[in-house]
Amino acid sequence: MRPVQVTSRGRVYSFTVNYQRWLSDLEVPYAIVLVEFEDHPGVRIAGRLRGCPPEDAAIGMAVDVGFEEGPGGYAVPSFVAVEETA
Amino acid sequence: MTAMDISERRALISGIGHSQIGRQIDRSGFQLTLDAILAAVADAGLSMEQIDGLTAFPPGGKTNLPGYASPDLSEIHDALRLTTSWRGGTGGGLPFSGAVDAVAGGRARHVVLYRTVKEGSAARQAGGRPAYGSIHSHAEGPLAWLLPIGALSPVCQIAPFAARYMHDYGVTREQLAWIPVTQRAHAALNPDAVYRAGLTVDDYLGSRMISTPICLFDCDVPVDGSTALVISSAETSADLRAPVRIEAMAGISESRPFWDQFEDMGRVGYASAAAMWKRTDLKPADVDVAQLYDGFTIEAVWWLEALGFCGTGEAGDFVDGGRRISLSGELPLNTWGGQLSGGRLHAAFGHTAEAVRQLRGEADERQVAGAEVAVVTNAGGIEGGAALLTR
Known about the structure:
The complex is a heterodimer. Chain A is mostly beta strands. In chain A, 0% of the residues lie in helices and 45% in strands. Chain A has a five-stranded mixed β-barrel. Chain A is globular. Chain B is of the alpha/beta class. In chain B, helix 2 (73-80) links the parallel strand 2 (53-56) and strand 3 (86-87). In chain B, helix 10 packs across helix 11. The chains are: A mainly beta, B alpha/beta. Chain A binds chain B through residues 13-23, 26, 30, 32, 34, 44-48, 59, 70, 74, 76-78, and chain B through 128-132, 145, 148-153, 155-156, 159-161, 163-164, 167, 208-214, 260-261, 265.
């Protein structure tokens, strides 16, 4: 078994915008998106959405792969909204 | 029926019992569990010396949330001074499937199983419903994939299923509101329910959003309480006060067993439902009362469709207005209030107990006249199960 690199644009399969402050220092709201990739069927990754207001999250929207700095030097998976021209 | 061995018909649900149930109860999980078990064994018409099997849900070990774990099996075993020929094992999607297998296979004659929660007290101590990982010093296992992205509660995990379902089939919150609203009306007739004051569609639509599209009234209510069941061998029926038959049961873990990887989030529970119907000649139209798992509103929605009470994507229309799922409707739903109003007794223990009361004709003011067939479900597609119970 070995890891496979996925860098292509993805699409949101589903999402939720979380409003509940589960922890006292949690900043809300934020969107969690489940993202699929055309070139990699069967791969679905969960992450935060950024690059747009969380309320703009939608099924089918295009996103790019991105990472955010997390605590302890770790990188947190996230996705960046892509402006699509009609 | 074919030559298939329907082994669950060699088992009966013979006893149900519960402790005091409330938002916070000043008794330990250990005490609540013993209250429930003593009530269930008496309800079955048995004495404690006749109990020779014991199991609990969850089976033990670490959990992600405070107040979630039932007391240790050995503690309860010791307190009841039991001698058992079978212990442990819930398995198979329904909390009682392991016990059914034990009595059907001759390992035991009367198995007690219990589910005890102290999640109401845990929520008060945490100043709100606790986040995943709040009882761990660091994230490991599946939590390592949840906590960094802010998926801090089961709500965040179930919400994308609800979003996808509503997107695919055009089902609205205005329609789904009728599930919690109707169940609240049922809870008003249940003295053991934790929320009994009236709830309207406007209350629902005006309530705060937890994680879209799931609002406050789509979430079950954390409580303190214990529920116990007694599962007995059908050979012992003459010794039992009012046993209920298990016509068919099935629990299929379909698709990939992770919240974010489930293949089609708009269609959940279909494999368990189909497997259950294959084991009986009864049809959806024969069901008189439905106790469908409702940790969240959307889970009851899936089961309505998966079991064939309406078509895929049609549950919004089916529940709209509440008439069909009311006590006088064609499919009275969660007649005790469900977990949304009755309290999160969890793992279908509350649902199963109510199904037994309805089939016995012991549901008092909320009795569905002439109830002969009840369906009970647990959880969703990942670890779900369904059972058909009869008088």
